## 1
Amino acid sequence: VARAIVFLSDFGLDDEFVGTCHGVIGRRAPDARVIDLSHGVPAGDVLRGAILLRDCIAYVPEDAVLLGVVDPGVGGARLPIAARTTGGRLLVGPDNGLLSLAWRALGGVERAVVIDSTEVVLRPTSRTFHGRDVFAPAAAHLAGGAELSSLGATTPVDALTEVEVPRGDIEPGGTSASVLSVDRFGNVALALTGDEFSRAGLDASAVLEVRTPDRVARAIPGSTFGDVEPGTLVVLIDSAGWVAIGRNGGSAADLLGARPGMVIRLRTTSNPAEPKTQPRGSAGT
Amino acid sequence: VARAIVFLSDFGLDDEFVGTCHGVIGRRAPDARVIDLSHGVPAGDVLRGAILLRDCIAYVPEDAVLLGVVDPGVGGARLPIAARTTGGRLLVGPDNGLLSLAWRALGGVERAVVIDSTEVVLRPTSRTFHGRDVFAPAAAHLAGGAELSSLGATTPVDALTEVEVPRGDIEPGGTSASVLSVDRFGNVALALTGDEFSRAGLDASAVLEVRTPDRVARAIPGSTFGDVEPGTLVVLIDSAGWVAIGRNGGSAADLLGARPGMVIRLRTTSNPAEPKTQPRGSAGT
Amino acid sequence: VARAIVFLSDFGLDDEFVGTCHGVIGRRAPDARVIDLSHGVPAGDVLRGAILLRDCIAYVPEDAVLLGVVDPGVGGARLPIAARTTGGRLLVGPDNGLLSLAWRALGGVERAVVIDSTEVVLRPTSRTFHGRDVFAPAAAHLAGGAELSSLGATTPVDALTEVEVPRGDIEPGGTSASVLSVDRFGNVALALTGDEFSRAGLDASAVLEVRTPDRVARAIPGSTFGDVEPGTLVVLIDSAGWVAIGRNGGSAADLLGARPGMVIRLRTTSNPAEPKTQPRGSAGT
């Protein structure tokens, strides 16, 4: 029986790109289940895609092939690769770091190949849609049981491209971190882990100051939205393990004007009863 | 063979929430077909989700598990439940009324349990993403054939939360109703049934007046868009049985400025040839 | 084993229309794989849907049923049809031309029927959602192995509706073409083939002038985005075979203000070093 394929891209769902890749997989591996992890990665945002591919691991079938296509350099010098981890997990995508956080979490790459087999790659091969012509067929072959080596020639593991997650800038009582993502509900995930949050002493404060480049607001540490009053900001560890700013019954992102990449500063407040910061009421307006 | 799972949420498709739930289902019930009914429910709109879960019943596999996740109170006091109807249908979701219109249409709940089995719920359990950690695994277990009782302890059926669909305010010759939804084509569905429409005598009028808080327009009763001239509003019974305002070749919502929750008044006109209302031409501007 | 169903519509994914059709297919053909080619066709854009259904053929399972629902005349005079091509391929949709480019590419229609069997069409039948009540059940029956004739009475092949792709207006050194589509990345596909591009001599020019109704810019012929400097426009043959205008690391559509249906003129430039056109720098502002 075929392995599942977990498919992530920045193709969006307005165009036919995702559907065409599904079609190719359906031709090559008709029994393979395709799980669309997300196709809403911001266009070309390799880091965001890499984080999502890593964070999904505990939540997808254990033998699923991970197929990632966030590929701003499509048709250029970056190599199309397939990799097998030390634990036997299979990954397919461009060698631009997109797969690197996942394979690191999976114990590292044992073997990698450049996808160039004429049995696998579709002909004619476009130079702008390797999702369809290279990556989807490669994932389908692997899902159907093909050996990694049947996809192409081995490439040195040491030369594979990796990406790094930006770290928070931690000091006692405060930290800066960049916004990783803003979700549909307006929750603002920061590139900051719960460990870092504790190390900065932020979990000991009853009220936190949240400062963006042009706004300031107060937030209450909690563990879910309903822990604070309606309309109030809450700082919690989100379901992926990131420190995130939410809002009970509303959008934290709208209140803060937060966007991916923006740097946000969290700070303890010395006097929660009379904060030196802007009062909550007016911050909400 | 596994039952299908019909999955509805307010997660949207820009983030990885839906895909992660699919992954969890793929781990627990690899043979279960997942039918994504809709993930475009407005954030936190429990009533809208409840209506969609009810209205889908005739159009999904008869033994499908209904999985609904519109859960603004996630991680708070509301219980995560699974229910079996008198006819043997299975439903999974938060106890906030989301499932209630469906189970009522299915004859009522025979037994309900709180989902808390450590065999089912993922550990660690986030307090903000029960779709992934509680509801998707529970639905997968049921789809795979597990007994309802294996998910957790029984909870009293009488105490389950229910929601009600708002009713139109009907009087002879006119009615007010709130907007249930606006679809991609700009069709405006009202919380008004065909029966109510007839009882108000609106089907006897050749021309109807449509009045929003700040606009007025004319509409022709019909049964499909092409029954009226291009650009004209038509009042019809939509495919879910609601009275809806459409427009031939255009968006009724744009013409009317209609949004979910807005109250719209329909009225018969005494003289269709010389309506007292604003002429159609200028209503379009 | 059931055939796959390739499903294209203009339903979008915000509403429940696509999910409801999936539900109906799940009832009638529980084993049929459904491949969602795209549901993002602009509302009512039959030509765009027809092109996508044709262009997918090489990339979907060879025996898949093609199900297309872009149906602005739903419930009116146009017929709901199912067709079998000379090669045995099956297509389902409204007789408004949506299927015509696909069947022409597949060798033409051998037999067509009007879908009206009471064994197939759902009762009651809405007049506004034939995707659910007519087309999805018909596709499911065919995917499950039913004969075309079981869907309804034969209709003359000669009377079927066809659409035509607009052609570029070609002359030596220049051509006008309308915009077929703008994708998520801002790539602008023109109704112009690579052959037409060559016949106009445009491939011989080192720099092209791109002229919209209100802007002018320079573009470099290439074969992928990275062939030009970051921010620069590139004219290439896209993965579907259309001449398209892209931009390295950005949106060509934003730069040009391009929208579907807009006419764009491409022209060779006599002196690439000192173009008579607006310099690139200011074109980007």
## 2
Amino acid sequence: MIFTKPTIPAGTRDFTPPEMIRRNYIFSNIREVFKLFGFLPIETPAMENLTTLLGKYGEEGDKLLFRILNSGDFLGKIDQNLLIKKESHRLSNSISERGLRYDLTVPFARFVVQHRNEINFPFKRYQIQPVWRADRPQKGRYREFYQCDVDTIGSNSLLNEVELIKIIDMIFNRLQIRVNIKLNNRKILAGIAEVIGEADKITEITIALDKIDKIGKEKVIEELIHRGIQNESIIKLNPLFEMSGSTVEKISFLEKYLVDSTTGCSGINELKTVFGLLSTYEIKNSVELDLTLARGLNYYTGAIIEVKAIDMEIGSVCGGGRYDDLTGIFGMPGVSGVGISFGADRIYDVMQHLNIFPSEAESTTQIMFVNFGEKETEALLPLLSKLRLAGVSTEIYPDPVKFQKQLGFANANHIPFVALVGEQELAKGLVTLKNMNAGSQEQLTIDKILERFKASSI
Amino acid sequence: MIFTKPTIPAGTRDFTPPEMIRRNYIFSNIREVFKLFGFLPIETPAMENLTTLLGKYGEEGDKLLFRILNSGDFLGKIDQNLLIKKESHRLSNSISERGLRYDLTVPFARFVVQHRNEINFPFKRYQIQPVWRADRPQKGRYREFYQCDVDTIGSNSLLNEVELIKIIDMIFNRLQIRVNIKLNNRKILAGIAEVIGEADKITEITIALDKIDKIGKEKVIEELIHRGIQNESIIKLNPLFEMSGSTVEKISFLEKYLVDSTTGCSGINELKTVFGLLSTYEIKNSVELDLTLARGLNYYTGAIIEVKAIDMEIGSVCGGGRYDDLTGIFGMPGVSGVGISFGADRIYDVMQHLNIFPSEAESTTQIMFVNFGEKETEALLPLLSKLRLAGVSTEIYPDPVKFQKQLGFANANHIPFVALVGEQELAKGLVTLKNMNAGSQEQLTIDKILERFKASSI
């Protein structure tokens, strides 16, 4: 037999222990904060019926779904002509009824409708699971990646937006990543489009405005003309180009600018409520109004949220907004929700780049006992038990091999303490404890060891 | 548009919050114990190349693999004749190159070979991920389910077996499930077959022996004859039928019985070492030798381990053993390993049946504040912040709706405490705290609330 080195599919990843420990550090911080705010976990299956998934992500999205081949004799009932014509697209719908989850939003909507009678609304749920997309793999873009979603559904209260922003603040504080939290509101964008007489051109206007810092006012105007905005509309837009100052100043400017648009005024009132509540909430990161935020304009109906890392140039690390009809696609209309999603892969990249993973995210074992042979091992087992019952991660090297080899293992696995209990130590009831970082060592009684590590593990 | 109630594929499951909280209780106990023993986490992709998976689970297993349809124009290069003949089986290999993970063992073997230069051997890894099998769905059998595997690879030391048994003991102690831990050793079974002159009939002999309690000695002998065991061999087997007593007595009996088989003696020595080490290790559950344990006879080469719940009739809740050539299938021979796998779904069923989930596995939020309106909410936010910073899961009902509705929500979500801060309380700096289980209520200062919940969350 000839063996080739095994590989995994393009765009997927193995996670080795050092990567897993750091990833788990991120996930458990995110999960803990979700729980601290009273959000409840759900999980949905990796596979959904294609009827659930198709048509929800646009034509491009449909192409990016991973489809599961039906089991058994899947060709049996297929029309011969379809096969001869080699119509891959039409055939795939006949030989495949299930697809892999593409995001957590559509499965969540399906879940809410399916379990509507078991759910207590307002439903505050979080969901941390992988999703799959048949995208062309490239640096930083994977075919399997985790999403961490948190949503409140069935409540119109703006307190929900405020709680989500506080969640963002607390998570990034914990991870020690400095961020800018940017807020926008679709109603304000709609108001602007209305006020300048281009109600149907929200997206074009927002996208053009987004470029003002990069390309300047002149070029933006060129682009607006190119995108079919009337001259007199552009003139009405002019005051917006000049808008500056703090968020408070911007809001007060917009309040006058949008006075003739009911939608616009309602957007302003929402912003004022949100910023008002935030001001009593000790937010550590900056939260600012950003009119150019155009994320998800085709489904968000109120707040739009985006979070950028300050100390590294990278896409957004978190984003979301309010949607008014998530479950309508499954026949349950009029349920409003608001949610955000954290990008664990980007957060990982930021933390690696800034080298801010704490040392507890580098290892799991706190103390490794050297293996001197069967007699010494047997004497050690009760101590191992006690340490573990006290919550101290403890291991003993499994084979009585050379000391240097065992030390090398501890070193490679970043284990901070190595304990030696040879014949001499055994006779005296002592343990020689080696601090692998400091290089120092000392002799302690077994009770002392227990005491010291117990304290450090709490 | 007509909507039909959305569903999920047969054999898959949604997990609602109450289920998730209980499942997470099981998973986090398992994970914590793995960590306490110094095992390191890995994760592998949901999809593997079919070349990795095919032929590893027998012909039946190949049929149970979920295959991913290739993306794009997958029929383009397919031979027309193959299509016209409708050969589903041959075609599926041409239009699908990837499949979903069927277990965690083969991906682990692939991982070890692929990352051999990054791994520090002996490699102690754990892996908790879902697997997928296109089995016919039935009660208790799912097409998507989690496996919790823990293995040490690259060490022959029997200390590894002992550590795994201690892990079993600790996990089931934590979950408060009483279990019988059953041990066998393939070398002993091989020794028995050798001693009676039927070296190639290990499996037949073990399976027949397994039935002695159910069908009695006479029927077992009938079955052995039926399975082609010679008469004189069956006579030699006779003393085994009479074997009884404690594990120590059984081992001492087998030591004499197997004296002429090198393999058998080696198996006995292994058992003696394992039971010897276990005796100093304060194992709370019973560990016994069970010669009829035939689990995985075609791949286990030494220890065989199986765990049964005492208080509920259900299949094994954990099992495993030693294998000598896991990575050989991927071209890296001679690496010995030993591992076990916990069945989270069965453990869940046992705990539900015995009603032993602790109350902390019923809810996440510890205290819910009633929403009396914007002014009261604004005043409360700093307190919410403080409670969360102290590790207390806290929420506020998002809308200022009727008190009874808010109370009903807390009740439905099993939230143990509800706090009321209305206008009166606000003026006095007091909080009315309602104990939802006891039905009692009391007024406390904000500092007192903080103090009480802080203490309870540690």
